Amino acid sequence: YEYDLVITNGVCVTAADVASYDIAVKDEKIVLLAPSGSLAGANAEKIIDAEGGYITPGGVDCHVHLEEPAMFGKGSSSDTYETGTRSAIAGGCTTIVGFAPQQKKEPSLLKALADTHARAKGNSFCDYGFHMMVGNPSPEALSELKTLSENEGITSLKIYMTYAALQIRDDQILSVLLAARSNRMLTMIHAENGDVLNWLTDQLESKGLVAPKYHSTSRPTILEAEATNRAIALSSLIANTPILLVHVSDPGATLRIRQAQTAGQPVFAETCPQYLFLTRDDLDAPGFEGAKCVCSPPPRDKASQDAIWTGLRNGTFTVLSSDHCPFNYDDAEKGKMTCITAENPVGKFREIPNGIPGIETRLPLVFSSGRLALTKFVEVVAANPAKLYGLYPRKGSLIPGVSDADIVVWYPEGRRDITITNEMLHHATDYTPYEGRTVGNWPRFTIIRGKVVWDRDNGGVVGEKTFGKFFKRGPSSLGRIWETAQKQGAFDVATL
Ligand code: URP
Ligand code: ZN
Ligand code: ZN
Ligand code: ZN
């Protein structure tokens, strides 16, 4: 065959363009974009007729928690690499970046990385990489960043300003940022004021206010805005070190990020579907049901949702990730119900594991929302994540001769109305917070490196868990400012 795969009659969308092309694939790469219909009779092993449907690059989801030890509350993740990536491909996602979690008691980052490789290898339906999650930024641990970045393809870190198991102090944040800069790494920051939310949690508990909805009360927006401001202020002391504020939910935090960007600071931001589609009212469901939507930061109000959509459209948010961090609901051993006791029949929100599943629903929810231009949609779910995390243009685009053939073929417009139920999803979690919502489209085919791995109408998941490859990532192409002249007037520890 001249080609391994040809897709005809589709409307191709990238971050830059919307145009009708046929696509030819050979040896895992996109090799040709040709005028629409011109490849219908090509000599190809497989031909897919897109019937006028949109074609996008596969989703790149760079915020996914799989098989991590309990660090965000009591339970442990319900999805393994196998089940989480199975869910990913069924929702049009072709590459994930998960976390290699270093716990406080674990001195070595390289050890944490090796353990994570062992869990993922041979168990991933899609391509993958890892961020280092730094729980203990000791000098020894930070001395390993060089190996991670230069040899292991780990070019990003996540640090936390909350969670007992992970929270680091401001001086430690500075040490991480300085070491990250020397090693050309991007630092992801979870910005919530942990000390204050613990204090508020004590106050609520002393009044007996422990039901799931008080999770939201314990984390008012100002805690996120304060920590976001502090992260930005700290990063300004280490000139030219890029940071990314993860899972931003609050308009105040968004405004502070925008202001830093306008001032020329290398500050990036991420948001997630839960801040676009859920509100705090979802935590106020009867009994313990609200626990299904307990994540941090918590979903806010309608006005906040609008502000987050605006931040996506105006470029304040570089990426839109799932923050897939699933725990079963009806599971007293490992799930949300671990916090239910005889004294607290509606649970104790402090102990509810934080996080919700969403790897499979991310693309369909946002694609169908009608609230982002199609090019913007591809930008925030595929192209920018690939650029930000050193995977572009191999991932995140449809460039002939350059991009892997990671492709989503959507249904022709107006043909589908799909009601989301947990039963139709492919994760190993017993609920979805989006149960009963209707979306107007869904990935019909998901293709990774030229191979159809998801065929919704013919077999569903048709990929294999051994197919996904680990990708060593290069430095961020968006955050690539390490060498640029230090900003005038910026205090810079490195010059002391
Ligand atoms: O509630 C959340 N977001 N759980 C996942 C852990 C994290 O902080 O990203
Ligand atoms: Zn072949
Ligand atoms: Zn986080
Ligand atoms: Zn997360």
TrEMBL record:
Annotated InterPro entries: Amidohydro-rel, Hydantoinase/dihydroPyrase, Metal-dep_hydrolase_composite, Metal_Hydrolase, Metallo-dep_Hydrolases_sf
GO molecular function: hydrolase activity, acting on carbon-nitrogen (but not peptide) bonds
Post-translational modification as stated in the protein's UniProt record: Carbamylation allows a single lysine to coordinate two divalent metal cations.
GO (cellular component) term, any one: cytoplasm
Keyword field contains Signal: no
Matches recorded under CDD domains: D-HYD
Matches recorded under Gene3D superfamilies: Metal-dependent hydrolases, Urease, subunit C, domain 1
Domain Amidohydrolase-related stretches: 54-453
Pfam families tied to this protein: Amidohydro_1
Chain positions found as N6-carboxylysine: K158
Alphabetic keyword roster: Phosphoprotein
Protein family per UniProt: Belongs to the metallo-dependent hydrolases superfamily. Hydantoinase/dihydropyrimidinase family.
Protein name stated in the entry: Dihydropyrimidinase
Organism: Lasiosphaeris hirsuta
High-level lineage: Eukaryota, Fungi, Dikarya, Ascomycota, Pezizomycotina
